[in-house]
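Just wondering, can you check both lines?
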Amino acid sequence: MRELVPGGYLFLTTGSVDSLAYRLLRANWRQMLPPWHVHFFGKKSIAFLLERCGFNLVNISYKSKNYPLGLLVERRAPNLYQHLKSAHIDRWSIRWNTFDIMFIVARKTQAI
């Protein structure tokens, strides 16, 4: 981060331990991917870390995603999937926001 000049913007994504998905799934949460993800954050902890590193938090948002309906049904109800396959369920999707991925925008305030 030393290369980023004061006033420069940092954009990042990370999982959110504030999410219901994390609270329900814990070790089975889709973001629990050691060794790639070894530190986990909520809104308060990422804001605190950014501030300690010389950044002001500009925005945190949560992006929705299209989930293929066929894949969801196949994983949860394989027998139902076999019946719906002929109705081309693989062409359908559901736009859903699990609020477990934070998109963060921060602005550097000082050199560290």
